[in-house]
Structure formats: structure tokens, C-alpha cells
Fold each of these.
Amino acid sequence: MKLPELVIGDLKIDIPIIQGGMGVRVSTASLASAVSNEGALGVIASVGLGEESKEDMTYEERSKIAFREMIRETKRLTNRKFGVNIMYALTNYDDLVNIAVEEEVGAIITGAGLPLHLPALVKNSMPKLIPIVSSARAAEIILRTWFKRYQKLPDAFIVEGPLAGGHLGFSYSEAMGIEQIFLEDIVGEVVNLVKEYKRSQNKEIPVIAAGGIFTGADIAQMLKLGASGVQMATRFVCTSECDVSEKYKEAYLKCKQEDIVVILSPAGMPARVIKNEFVERIQAGEKMKFECPFKCLKSCDPYSANYCIAQALVNAYRGNLDEGFAMCGANAYRLKEIVSVKELIYELIEQSIKEFYKIKNSISK
Ligand SMILES: Cc1cc2nc3c(=O)[nH]c(=O)nc-3n(C[C@H](O)[C@H](O)[C@H](O)COP(=O)(O)O)c2cc1C
């Protein structure tokens, strides 16, 4: 028995799991290629790349060079398709999309904003265009705008719920669970919305569920709701192929549920992180001295921000958690060990096949 493959136009992914893009430097060539090699879809993240020490170059130049190198490195490590995650909130969004197009990646995945002009950047080239949305309303705005302006529709949607890691497309109280929003509901709404487009435009737009998906049973549940696949990120941090420092992974393995908090990021969005002393200083409103080496986020004003989030994440990636923090999904506290990507995918597939066919059989009885 097999799970249904994830079909995004002519891009066919054997195992219906996308490994979520994780900036800053969390999902790099090593992780993404290992995931693609197992038959799922690996994704590299484009934010915060390029050595800060190269002071003779602007952030835009450094990040473009590093992003291109990372795509090429991933190609060296896998013959299979992989995707790139380019946040819409980035100041050099258009440049990074152009590189992804030139390098012929399998998919361009964009969250942290609505990429309304993305089709104009890729024209008729091949990467699949996959926006990340947190509501059916956001999906509808993209569908309508792309169709009206470019006679184009997204190749798939990733629907990200409030339990996800990184920056969140929800209000602080929704992200904290004070106002309850459920991924299952948003997935159902977007599945119904794309059915209308299937009827009127005859285009299949698969919906991929993300945010808090942890076990094979969770995957089966999402497939049952009409999702064609899932995107998972947090679980991939504690794999041997993930490039972050041991201390970063240790923060995951040691954290308790109450250590996982939501902060308001200088990007102007809530972000989920693991609490430590640095996070407590931010939460207390301390203004830290910094020179912005990146200018990476459209909505971040380095003069009024009280710290540099990109630098804090680079520090954490390198193991300096005194001056940084790890981002994570709401279920990070459930991680107990480091495994290989192969072991993780095997475990998820075993569990989800069992659950998927159990659910299907109970529906058909
Ligand atoms: C450490 C970390 C960094 C992330 N960085 C990004 C990013 O750069 N761009 C993005 O669109 N999503 C980012 N995300 C969100 C993931 O891609 C993914 O959709 C989400 O975390 C899925 O939920 P899960 O972590 O519970 O599986 C990040 C998540 C984590 C845990």
C-alpha cells in the first residue's frame, strides 16, 4: 500500500510531504537534498544568506550569490526536483525569484505576504508557483488577481495554520490560541474554493496543509480532509542533515511546551520561538544596540526595531543562543531525538499509510 502521490501539474512527488523552507540557514542544501532524495520535496530557504563579513558587498549582492550557490549545491546533491522558499516580505524578493527562474528550480514557494505580481516575474518558465496562505480570503485574492492580470492560476496552495513555526499570518491572539482558529477549517475552506476553479477553469490546484503536523496520523487526517499533501518543518530541524548548530537542536530537544512563545517580530508579524534569556529581554522591551547588516525585510525599520531578527537567527544557527533564538512550530516540545531524514520519512509514511487506509475503510463502510 502507498499514499497517493502529490501531483502539482507535471511535478509528481512520490511522498506527499513538502519539507517547509526554514530561514535563516536552517533548511539548506544538505537538508533539502536529503528530503528530495527520499522521494518527498526538499525546500531551501532564501532569507538571511551571504556572509556578513563581506563588507565590500551589499546584502543584496551577498544574498544573491549565496542563494545561487545554494541552489547549485542542492543540484549537486540530488537529481530530483526541489523547491525554494522566498518570503514576500524580503526587500530583494524580485531578484531572488529571478535567480530561482534562471536556475530552473522545481517550485517557488512564497509566504509572508501575498505575491500578487509573482507571475509577471516568471512569465512562461517552468517552476511551479505555490503561495502560502493562512485563510481562504487570502487564497481568493491571489486567485482573482493572478487570473485577472495574468490569466494564470497558482499551481498549488500551502495552507498554513496557527501552530506553524517562523513568521505567522495570524494576529498575536490567534497565534497564541486565545482566539481559536483551526487548520482543519481553513484547509476545508480552501479545498472548496479551489473546487470552484476546477469547475470553471478546469485546473487542478492541490491544497497542502501545514502547521503543527507531527505524526503520520496527522498526515492521514489532512489527506482525509481533502488536502493533497502536507508541509512539515519543525520535525526536520532535529535531523542529522539539518545544518543548524548542535545548540540549536538542543534547544528543541530540551524545550517544554511552556517555553514555546509567540513574539512580535520586527517584520511586523508574530513569530513562534523558543524562550531563552535573549527572548525575555526582547519581551521586556529592551532596545539592543545594532547596526543593520542586512536590510532584508521590507517592513523592518532598523531605527525603530529593538533588535535585528536576521542577526539573532544567524547567531542561533551558529550556536550563540545568548544573542539569538530558535524559531519553531508549536509542537517542537514533542521532539525527543535526532534522527536521519530517511528514518523520519520512513516513520511518517508507515504511520500515515496505516491511518489513511483505516480512515478510508471506515468511510466506505
Ligand atoms: C525554524 C523555522 C524557520 C522557518 N522559516 C520560514 C521561512 O523562511 N519562510 C517561510 O515561508 N516559512 C518558514 N517557516 C515555516 C515553515 O516553512 C512551515 O510552513 C511551518 O513551520 C510548518 O509547521 P510545522 O513547523 O509545525 O511543521 C519556518 C519554520 C521554522 C520551524
Amino acid sequence: MNILVINGSPHTRGTTALLRDKFTEGAASVGHNITTFHVCKEELHPCTGCNHCRTTENGCIYKDGMETLNPLLKNADCVVFVTPLYYFGMSSQMKMVIDRFYANNTALRSLKKKAVLLAACGDTDSWTLDALYQHYLNICQYLHWEDLGSIQAIGMYTREDIENSDYPKAAKILGQSLV
Ligand SMILES: Cc1cc2nc3c(=O)[nH]c(=O)nc-3n(C[C@H](O)[C@H](O)[C@H](O)COP(=O)(O)O)c2cc1C
């Protein structure tokens, strides 16, 4: 499978980076091709709802990092969303990219894809990631993408927290399990 990892964390050595590394290690070990798009390293603009993409043949008015991401998205069999929890949702960097899917909704909804969520948060309440997870599931439902699973790492404020947890191992197993 062609796996596209969309990394929505600004931290290169943070908690979700370790989940991402272990997941890709597992997926690569069973022969998948992995491409990673680091949202925070790209020049990207938030959707302004101008509807240029709907009213012209020229797509989004912004010709930015999405020009790199769009063909990767089109070719991906599986899209992996990697995000820290920011105020009970995905990072604004990740949300910005997903909003930009709007310019290609029809194509994205008609292409058969699978999806995975890798997320981490600091608090330990069992419900902390519920809204983010539900949001992810609704996105999958809308796009007609099949959810292949998630790692929801609760109580992981720091890199040290997650290094001392079982979540990296679970992320590797999830990567290995993809078919
Ligand atoms: C702006 C911001 C908002 C956050 N909001 C939450 C939150 O609502 N709940 C929570 O448990 N942790 C929250 N956190 C903590 C992060 O989710 C947590 O430290 C995560 O492991 C960071 O992932 P990263 O190292 O991959 O960037 C927040 C952190 C930041 C910087």
C-alpha cells in the first residue's frame, strides 16, 4: 500500500513523533511505501471559503504546499493523521490541511482509501480524546474512507512520558497490521 502520513505536530521530537516513527517502522517492515508530509514545514494557507474552487476550473486560489500534498493524497491507499490534542481537537495545523480538502471533496470522496489516527494528549481523563476521535470518525464517514484503527495516547505530555509507555509498541503493531 501507498501510505501517506500527514504530520500535524510542530514538534520534531515530541510524543506524536514517536508514535509516527514506530507506526512507520511497523508498516515499512511489512512492505508498505510510506511518504510523510510535515504540515509545519510547508507554506500553507487556511481556507477562506471564497469558493474559487467551486466557481472556476482552477482549483484553490492558493497555490501553496497543497500542490505537493494533493497528488500524494490522490495516490495514497491509506492516509495517517498524526496530531497532538490542542484544546480537545486536532492541531490547527492539521485542521488547516483538512479544510483544504474542500477544494477536492468530490475526488476525495470517490477514491477508495483507508485511514488511521495517531494522537496524543497530556491529561489523563478517559474522555480527553473523545471529541478528536469522533471528529476523525466523522471525517472518515463523510469521505467514505475506511478507519483501520487509532492510537489514542492519553496522559502523554512529554517525550519521556511516551517513551515510558506501551503506546510506541502499540503504534508499531498497528503499522504491521495494515493490509
Ligand atoms: C496549544 C496546546 C493545546 C493543548 N491542549 C490540550 C488539551 O486540550 N488536552 C490535553 O490533554 N493536552 C493538551 N495539550 C498537550 C498536548 O496535547 C501534549 O503535550 C501532546 O503530547 C503534544 O504532542 P507533540 O509532542 O507531538 O506535539 C496541549 C498542548 C498545546 C501546546
Amino acid sequence: MKKKLNLFSEIAMYLILLAQMLYVFTGTIGWFKAVLTGKSRKTKAGRFADAVTLLLLLCACVMMISSMGVSRVIFPWFKFMMEPVFHRYMATAVLTLSFIHGGMHYYFIAKSKKKAVVIITLLAIAGLAIGLALVPYLNRHLRKVEVVFEEKVRGEKVEMTGETPLVVYFTRVGNTDFEPDVDAVSGASLMRADGVLMGNTQLMALMIQDATGAEVVPITLTGEKYPYSYMDTVSVGGREIREDARPAIEDIDVSGHDKIILIYPIWWGTVPMPVATFLEANDFTGKTIYLLATQGSYGFASSTSDIRKMAKGADVVEGLSIYCDDIPNVRAELAEWLKKIK
Ligand SMILES: Cc1cc2nc3c(=O)[nH]c(=O)nc-3n(C[C@H](O)[C@H](O)[C@H](O)COP(=O)(O)O)c2cc1C
């Protein structure tokens, strides 16, 4: 039923897109002719409106092409512009330019041009804020994902020529006081694999285990767990970072391993403090730590430099930083990365 609804809404949106491109609504062809023949508005505002429209058109085209790169399912052969972050920036640009474009229509009929400029500026700020802050925020706070374990975790095997790395991960699941009724955990940035509650980093750890047969160890708090509410965890996690706390964790012995893959979520631009406890409790002299981060924005933020300071003696190597939404589809990318470090 959900799949049918999704398909229906996709088709409906596509039809609306086509309809709103109709000449009767937009006058696109007339506008193109006017711009190309130099007969468009000669005023400053007219030129600005034309520039915005052209840029909007350009960004919309780039966004369409980059969406093919993002979809590893429908266009697996399309290797160009695979970076989802780039696609998201393009979508933000399209949204912001559309707002300005709409605002310019108002400008030309507005009695008070000053008021129109203020409204257009506010619209532009709103577009940027929605694309850069609100959507990533909602994604990471309100997301609830169901995955089929067999489809998402099982995949290509990678034969490690050297030592198979030890995989250590930290995730909220297992370190949080969830209500016994886990169904109540809706909208809390959680994932369910075959109905079992699972953290993002945990799913990645299990993917690596499936690919390499690696030993997988979670970082587990021994003391107080994080609160049930996601927002409260954000506050507690932030406070721990400000206080440079070292929450107590179960011992993890890395002495028999020269290679460690550390998987962690970015918290407040760095590592969750239980990860700091793990790093400082071990001697990493002569060992290599490969970093895999998950996040609600992009990159490693300051986690890499912080880890270098905490993991004494380690050679710290950045691996992949995966946007939380992309984690269920990252199995093939992980296998490719494992081949590089094998
Ligand atoms: C306390 C806390 C702080 C966070 N801070 C950031 C952040 O600064 N930047 C970011 O991109 N994502 C941030 N996130 C989002 C997580 O990195 C993201 O949801 C991650 O995939 C969660 O992984 P997990 O399910 O394995 O715990 C934060 C999440 C929490 C709970």
C-alpha cells in the first residue's frame, strides 16, 4: 500500500512538473525569444530578473543530472556527480532562486518597490535556510527508516590480503534507555533492520563484517545511558563535549590488532565522548585507525584532528563520511573502499 502511494505521488508530482512547464502558464518560449533578441526588459530590475531566471534554469538542469548520480539504484552506471552533498546544494540553489524568481514577479507589479525588495530578500534567506539548515535538521531528527537486512547488509565479499581490521563502532542504540515498547521510538532518527532497532554505525559495521568476516565490537556505556528522547540526547551529548567528559565504557582490547576501523556518528562536530574514552584507554602505537563517520550534514568536521590527539601513537586515516540517509545504500561503496585498504 505504502509503495503504491509512493508511486502515485511520484507520478502526480511528475505530471504537475510537466503541467507547470506549459507555455500557457509560464510564457517560457516568449521569454526566451525576448532574452535572445535583446527585447527583454531594459531596466536594472529586468536584467536582474533575467539573470535569476537563467541561473535558475542552469541550476535546475545540473540538479536533474546530479540526481542521476545520486541514485545508485536506477542509474548504477552513472558515475558522474555522485556526491549527494552537491545535489543537495543544487536543490537549495533551485529553491532559493525560485523564491527570488517568484518575488520578482511581485516586484514588477508592486506599488512599493522598497517593500518588494525586503520581501524578496526575506524569501531568499528563507530558501537558503530551508535548504541548508531545516531539511538536514528534519532529516536527522525525524527520520525513521526500515531496511531489509538481507538486501542491504549482504553483498560482495572482500578478501583482505593483510590483517583483517577490528571494527569498533559507537551508536545510540544499545547506549540509550529506550522504552520497552520500541515501536514508540518513531521520529527519533532510528533505523529498523528486519524490525530490529539498529544504529546507523552499527549497520555499517555489520556490512563490513559481511564483506570481510571482521570482528565487530560496540563501544558500550557501563554507567548512565543516553536519554530516550533524541533532543535530550543532543543536549546531553553536547554537555559532555563542552565538559570534555569521559563516560565509562566496557573495556575493548585492541592489542592483538594493527588495523582498526572506527565507525562513529558526528556529534556536535566531533566524536561522541564515549569514543574519546575508548581512544584514550588504549595504546595505539604502530596501529592504523581508519575512520568511518556518519552525519546529518557532511564530512568529518573536527573529528579527525580530535581523534589524532586522543589516539596516541596511531596513524589516523580518513575513510568515508556517510550522510545518515545514505547508510542503507552504502554496502557497495564500503566494499570498494575496503578494497583500497586491504
Ligand atoms: C548528540 C548528537 C549530536 C549530533 N551532532 C551532529 C552534528 O554536529 N553534525 C551532524 O552532521 N550530525 C549530527 N548528529 C547526527 C548524527 O551524526 C547522525 O544522525 C548519525 O548518523 C547517527 O548515527 P547512529 O544512529 O549510529 O547513532 C548528531 C546526533 C546526535 C544524537
